[in-house]
Amino acid sequence: MKNVLLIGCGNIGFRHLQALGSAVKGGAALNLTVVEPNLSSHGRIAAYLASLGAATQSALFNELPPGPGAYDLAILATNSAARRAAFDAVHSRYTLKSVVFEKVLFPTLGDLDAVAATLQRDRVAGYVNCGRRTAPGYQALQSALSSTPVDIIVTGANYGLGSNAIHFLDLAEFLNSASIEAMDAAGLQPGSVPSKRYGYVEIFGTISARLSNGATIRVTCDRDGDPNVVVHLTAGSEEFEIDETGRRLIRGGVAEDFAMRHVSELTDTYLELLNEGHCVLTPYADSTAQHRFFLSELLKHFGQPAEPDEVCPVS
Predict the structure, then answer these.
(1) What's 136-260's CATH class?
(2) What tens digit of pLDDT does each residue of 69-126 get?
(3) Which tops the pLDDT comparison, 197 or 251?
(4) Fewer CB atoms inside 10 Å of the end CB: C or N, the chain?
């Protein structure tokens, strides 16, 4: 029996729960512990856990149960402001083998380093849910384009640049098997607007980056228009256009299916992590480097110093 702890079971957290539930329905022996402070969400969570029947042991709390204890996997699906405290509380009470963090990881540069030091010291495997690495469509492209720098242009409107830019920056590293060397947020529109998430802001415009193999990425989000995302790839003489919403890829004027993967479909990824000790999600150390560039550029955009404790209000 593998022990799994899920902290935060709102919208994104519930999708993680569905992925774990699919593992249980497929025969995996999991003991699921869910912590969600919002009591109004408990009805839906309890009903889903009950639907799994006797195939699993499960428990639902509105706060962390007392330790000691041990978990093979902890998933931290809180907002960015609460995630450091959640990690510290979980780590101080329980023995952990692996942790999957939602993103944006944390609101400060200091949090990135402090958690990295803890994971390394205690030999806890850390991963970040930049899930495009799990998508069969992107995995096939990475294999096919492995010898050529892949330039990426992301366009769209109202898809949440502050929250989702890190997904595409990670995609650039994944497709290129290279790391980001420089980032520039000078193309952002001045200022910000309040996010639908209380206490956070949203940004519009363009963020650009250059990778160690010479590839580039430009991520643009417009303020006008229905939510949409189109990903354009150029690798040498080849060009690809990916409609992620429609799950279609256009290559040489010909459209074909493009397999994506939602968070609720990460079942195989979690089983690999639980059974093998590793998975295809972004290693924490790699994501920390991406986040360092990203947070530093946003702090500059907001007119704030890139100091360890300076808060960047994106999640």
Answers:
(1) alpha beta
(2) 999 999 999 999 999 999 999 999 999 999 999 999 999 999 999 999 999 999 999 9
(3) 251
(4) N
Q: Any idea which fold 2-131+266-283 has? A: Rossmann fold (3.40.50)
Distance CA 57, CA 51 (A): 12
Structure tokens at 124: 């806890």
CB atoms within 10 A of CB 71: 21
- Cα→Cα distances 191→58, 183, 186, Å: 45, 18, 12
- According to DSSP, the residues that pair with 76 across neighbouring strands are 7, 101
Alpha-carbon span 245 to 243, nearest angstrom? 6
Q: Encode pLDDT of 42-69 as tens digits.
A: 999 999 999 998 878 999 999 999 989 9
Residue 292 pLDDT grade (very low, low, confident, very high; cuts 50, 70, 90):
very high
Distance CA(174)–CA(168), nearest Å, equals: 10
Burial 75-95 (b: 16+ CB within 10 A, else e): bbbbbbbbbbebbeebbebbe
Q: Is 243 helix (H, G, I), strand (E, B) or coil?
A: strand
Domain assignments of the chain as residue spans, ordered by start: 2-131+266-283, 136-260
Helices (H) and strands (E) in the chain, counts: 8, 19
Could you tell me if residue 256 is left (phi over 0), alpha (psi between -120 and 50 degrees) or otherwise beta? beta
Measured CA to CA in angstroms, residue 7 lies from 66, 107, 249, 253, 291 at distances of 14, 18, 35, 45, 22
If you compute the radius of gyration of the chain from its CA atoms, what whole number of angstroms results?
Answer: 20
Residue 103: other Cβ atoms inside 10 A: 24
**pTM for the full model?**
0.97
- Pull the structure tokens for residue 133: 């690495």
